[in-house]
């Protein structure tokens, strides 16, 4: 049994090792201070935060005109390491990065959909995460101790506001494109809405203008499980035992929403671990049970429960229509860039109908929008797995002529 | 905010109070010993169990020929109290029964779909539950203490085997019908398969021959949450603090699967509790959060976590095709009764396609099968809420002529 991400990475490892001509090769994560006491980052909640360090990676060359940069966004548990092989995994304290290429390596590299021979690719870790950018595990300058639950409640808008500082720091006035899947897609949409004059193209993939109440409910339960874990200690668990049981529940829940019913059936088909029949016990008996347990166990080793709380809350709160007083059509008026919207037929976390709603809102505003619903059985994970179909669509959009 | 069940009961309470001509009125739960040391109940796991007490209710009159009995099955968290108003709620130690009629009161009563003027209705609490029938909270005669996790792992087949004893005890050779929704529907199917000569009609509603891997996964996470609750103490928590946090997670998860995305949207629509906008905190902020919390809090007051473990495990294991070596067509060969299969269009826990699969398997065996997919936005809960449509179908099936 292996998860889609592992499948993806096995495939990448095979076809795109660090020495492959299709790989960006060895890469390093960098860190930059983008908000300090004199210039703190204002947040949607009304507070400000400083200092803010941002971890990011870049691949390819920024051309002289500085107009070939593409900003890519990661999803909930992702990081800045989009492609290639990490050279400083040990220094970062993330040894697991050594065993596999970046999370979208199939899409980013020489000759790939996001072609590093043509484009300068940037990806940064989001505010509140645990992979190098300031988050709940960082030291709160006021207390001298980790923020924990004292971290401000952040939003997709805050993420984008911080990314704008990174883009400016890199000397880029206008991005060739912004692109992301899942809540990465919501960041792309938010860029198009918040900085219309600084984006030429937005690729919004496996995403939607807002999470459904059903999607929201999964986050509610995930957070409840984390916060009621006896090791949670109101978020003040750093240096001690961590709330692994709660975070495991959260991750297992996540996995259900990333797969589709049909992909789970294809993958597991109610098979028993022993290959035979029921063992008549309450432990791990079906293969799908073993899969979920394994996924959650490896996840708690590499993710911070507090980050899970704050990032899912940002996902809950995101609602593009609020820029138009709850009216999505009105919100879309400010968009100036060309947009590509991609959904996947079996994605039920960000269902095609929601993307279609966005496409229609843009169309009614006579915006330049292309909408593609890719047939796939992979559910939400399709944005990581439907590489061939997605590459074709993305490449055409990025490299096609502008009429 | 109120849950569908409450909605249902508000409606029932209004139209079908204990004195209403449409109500079965005041009812009492009875208890009977159906397995003792000399005649223990054999179980699919290979063990036996004794003593086994069964709580049940009956409404209407058994006719002289004893051929008008209908056995109804409850779902996961249900009980024997299908209809009417409980007269002995306090003696049973279940005060909440006083505030509302039975769980299928809209369907069972004089002139209703299951017409108590014509039929003798029986419902018993399943083995392993916590509402009167022997379960994990009962005393294990070997240890003199509650079974806890020492309770045997039970199956849908075991439930039906015990129900057969009840039917025999009541002097009934052949049932006019068996009927249930959700895992109640699986019990109806199992009756048709296990006791083909003792059932004339089987009504299998909002159910399927087996749970999908996706459905299974929800149960896996629910059990994980319960078993990792620090109050769980390997199931030995009786008399002390109970694993409420784990059971809350389980119940909230359950609610997501009982509703549909569209019914959640209609019900909550991402509304905030304060009626305005985001409160920028991690607590209860959306109405759907409040709803889930409230549902789970009231549930932990009235359900035993160990019962949740054993009943969901029985639901996991059920697979009608195993009676035909994994071939559903072959399994269906033994069926002799007329069957009515009812699914609901937006039910994603027991999706219509799975019911259709069963209908086709029966058809290919030239069995007398009627299949109806009722359009509904209520998701799995539709079997409790789509009273008018369901009543029409059920009544026609029960009272229609036999050709």
Characterise the protein shown here.
The first copy, chain A, is of the alpha/beta class. The first copy, chain A, has 2 domains: 287 residues, Alpha/Beta hydrolase fold, catalytic domain (Rossmann fold), CATH 3.40.50.1820; 107 residues, Orthogonal Bundle (Rna Polymerase Sigma Factor, Chain: A). In chain A, 35% of the residues lie in helices and 16% in strands. The first copy, chain A, contains 13 helices and 16 strands. Chain A has an 8-stranded mixed beta sheet with strand order 2-5-10-6-13-14-15-16, sandwiched between helices. In chain A, strands 1-7 form a two-stranded parallel ribbon. In chain A, helix 11 links the parallel strand 15 and strand 16. In chain A, helix 3 crosses helix 4 and helix 5 runs antiparallel to helix 6. The first copy, chain A, starts with a helix and ends with a helix. In chain A, 55% of the residues are buried. At the A-B interface, helix 5, helix 6, helix 7, helix 8 and helix 9 of A face helix 5, helix 6, helix 7, helix 8 and helix 9 of B.
**Would you identify the CATH architecture of the largest domain in chain A?**
3-Layer(aba) Sandwich
Determine and state the CATH class of the largest domain in chain A.
Alpha Beta
CA radius of gyration of chain A: 20 Å
Largest interface: A-B, 58 and 58 residues
The side-by-side strand order for the widest beta sheet of chain A comes to 2-5-10-6-13-14-15-16
Please identify the structural class of chain A as seen in this structure.
alpha/beta
Mean pLDDT of chain A: 95
What's the number of domains of chain A? Answer: 2
Helix content of chain A: 25-40%
Instruction: Predict the CATH topology of the largest domain in chain A.
Output: Rossmann fold
Low-pLDDT runs of chain A: 1-10
Shape of chain A: globular
Cα distance spanning the termini of chain A? 47 Å
Strand content of chain A: 15-25%
């Amino acid at each position: 049994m292996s998860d889609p991400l592992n499948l993806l990475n096995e495939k990448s490892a095979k076809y795109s090792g660090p020495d492959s001509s299709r790989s960006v090769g060895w890469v390093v994560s960098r860190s930059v201070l983008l908000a300090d006491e004199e210039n703190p980052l204002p947040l949607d909640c009304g507070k400000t935060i400083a200092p803010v360090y941002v971890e990011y990676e870049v691949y390819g060359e920024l051309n002289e005109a500085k107009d070939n940069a593409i900003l890519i966004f990661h999803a909930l548990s992702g990081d800045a390491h989009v492609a290639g092989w990490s050279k400083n995994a040990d220094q970062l304290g993330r040894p697991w990065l050594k065993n596999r290429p970046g999370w979208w390596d199939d899409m980013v590299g020489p000759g790939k959909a996001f072609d590093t021979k043509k484009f300068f690719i940037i990806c940064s870790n989001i505010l509140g995460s645990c992979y190098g950018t300031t988050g709940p595990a960082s030291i709160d300058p006021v207390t001298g101790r980790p923020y924990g639950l004292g971290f401000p409640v952040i939003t997709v808008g805050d993420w984008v506001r911080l990314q704008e500082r990174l883009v400016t720091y890199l000397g880029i006035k206008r991005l060739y494109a912004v692109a992301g899947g899942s809540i990465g897609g919501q960041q792309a949409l938010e860029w198009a809405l918040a900085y219309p004059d600084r984006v030429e193209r937005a690729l919004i993939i496996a995403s939607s203008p807002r999470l459904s109440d059903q999607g929201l409910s999964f986050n509610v339960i995930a957070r409840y499980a984390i916060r009621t874990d006896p090791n949670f200690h109101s978020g003040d668990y750093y240096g001690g035992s961590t709330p692994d049981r709660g975070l495991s529940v959260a991750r297992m829940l996540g996995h259900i929403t990333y797969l589709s019913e049909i992909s789970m059936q294809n993958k597991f088909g109610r098979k028993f671990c022993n290959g035979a029949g029921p063992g008549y016990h309450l432990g791990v008996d079906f293969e799908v049970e073993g899969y979920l347990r394994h996924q959650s166990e490896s996840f708690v080793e590499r993710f911070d429960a507090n980050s899970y709380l704050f990032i899912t809350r940002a996902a809950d709160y995101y609602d593009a229509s609020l820029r138009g007083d709850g009216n999505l059509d009105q919100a879309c008026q400010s968009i100036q860039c060309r947009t590509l919207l991609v959904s996947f037929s079996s994605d039920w976390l960000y269902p095609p109908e929601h993307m279609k709603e966005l496409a229609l809102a843009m169309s009614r505003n006579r915006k330049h929008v292309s909408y593609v619903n890719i047939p796939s059985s992979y559910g939400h994970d399709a944005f990581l797995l439907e590489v061939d179909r997605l590459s074709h669509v993305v490449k055409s959009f990025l490299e096609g002529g502008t009429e």
